[in-house]
Amino acid sequence: MGSEIRTVGIMPNIYKKSSLEVACALLEWLEHRDVEVHILREDARAMGCAERGSDGDGFASDLELVISLGGDGAMLRAAGAAYAADAPVVGINLGKKGFLTAMDADHMYPGLEEILAGRYLLQERMLLACSLAEGSEAETHFALNEVAVGKRELQRMVRLEVDINGHYFHFYAGDGVIFSTPTGSTAYSLSAGGPIVDPLLDCIIITPICSHSLMDRSVIISPDSYIEVRVVREKVMPTLSFDGREETELPHGGKVLIRCAEQRLKMVKLESYSFYSLLRAKFDFPESGK
Questions:
Q1: What is the CATH number of domain 7-126+264-283?
Q2: DSSP character at residue 284
Q3: Is 198 a catalytic residue?
Q4: Which of 34, 43, 55, 72 is catalytic?
Q5: Which of 6, 82, 133, 156 makes an SS bond possible with 89, Cβ 3.0 to 4.6 Å?
């Protein structure tokens, strides 16, 4: 059980009309229940209520819950804002798979009634922290699903050397390498042949993308591990992305440092939530062997 919630942030997918329409209806529904609603300035403009928008600090002030409206992409964006505000996040699925979301749109209002009253589960999920250089000046990025080191050129290989805990581990040649959390095991990592991992476990999953070696497989390592990825000088342009939302070019000879983040993300689920029931529903598992 959680605590009663009275201050909520709404984050729709601003590029989808249906999400913006749901956000406007939800805003009215929440205010009728005397819930204080925060909206980011960019989102408020898209919703047609620019005067309601606030900057990041205003959005995060006294925030008790962030509501994401959309699919998993919208949820990842909202998770970043919730993580920065150290507030829980809940997702309303308006998309397709919706692995990260807590409920579909048809069950939004009954589900939110339960959540506002404090009848919900609060899960903590690990994130990855990634920096491009060592030292206090290094900028750190956070990822709920994965950090991916890849390339721009389609028909060339990128070559990466990976150390774990200061010891040389492996040389990868192919399209790149995915470093995934258990939460992200059903996302990009799964598409590249990685394992499905219970999201409440703590570990880091290393999965090669289209490896040039037949022997390369996913490796699961301790959450206490720290990883260094070095880009071997090549003719390709190496890239680095976080949850598929941000992408930056990597300099040849540059290195990436990846570890488990110290702070965890709080995710709200309904009391009926089951990860394994979700897997059955999303992947259409058979009902029985008969």
A1: 3.40.50.10330
A2: T
A3: no
A4: 72
A5: 82
CA–CA separation, 237 vs 157, rounded Å? 10
**Residue 105's Cα: distance from chain center in Å?**
20
Whether 212 and 225 have beta carbons less than 8 Å apart is answered as no
Using the Cα atoms of residue 70, residue 244, residue 248 and residue 147 in order, give the sign of their dihedral.
positive
Pick the CATH number of 128-260 from 2.60.200.30, 2.120.10.30, 3.90.180.10, 3.30.70.890: 2.60.200.30
CA distance 128 to 165: 15
Question: Residue 2: which pLDDT band, with cuts at 50, 70 and 90?
Answer: low
In the DSSP assignment, the letter for residue 282 is H
User: Please, are residues 18 and 98 in contact by the beta-carbon 8 Å criterion?
Assistant: no
Dist CA 68 CA 89 (whole Å): 7
**Per-chain mean pLDDT for the chain:** 91
Residue range 161-187, pLDDT digits in tens: 999 999 999 999 999 999 999 999 999
Nearest by Cα to 85 from 263, 269, 260? 263
Question: Could you tell me whether strands 219-221 and 246-249 are parallel, antiparallel, or unpaired per DSSP bridges?
Answer: unpaired
Residue 215 CA to residue 62 CA, distance in Å, equals 51
The Cα-based distances of 231 to 75, 131, 137, 163 in angstroms read 31, 14, 21, 12
Rounded-to-integer distance, Cα 280 and Cα 213, Å: 32
Q: Reduced to 3 states, what is the DSSP secondary structure of residue 262?
A: coil
For the residues of 68-90, what is the DSSP string, one character each? EEESHHHHHHHHHHHHHHT--EE
Mean pLDDT of all residues in 273-284 = 86
According to the model, what pLDDT value does residue 134 have? Answer: 56
The string of pLDDT tens digits covering residues 179-211 is 999 999 999 999 999 999 999 999 999 999 999
- Between CA 53 and CA 39 the distance in angstroms is 5
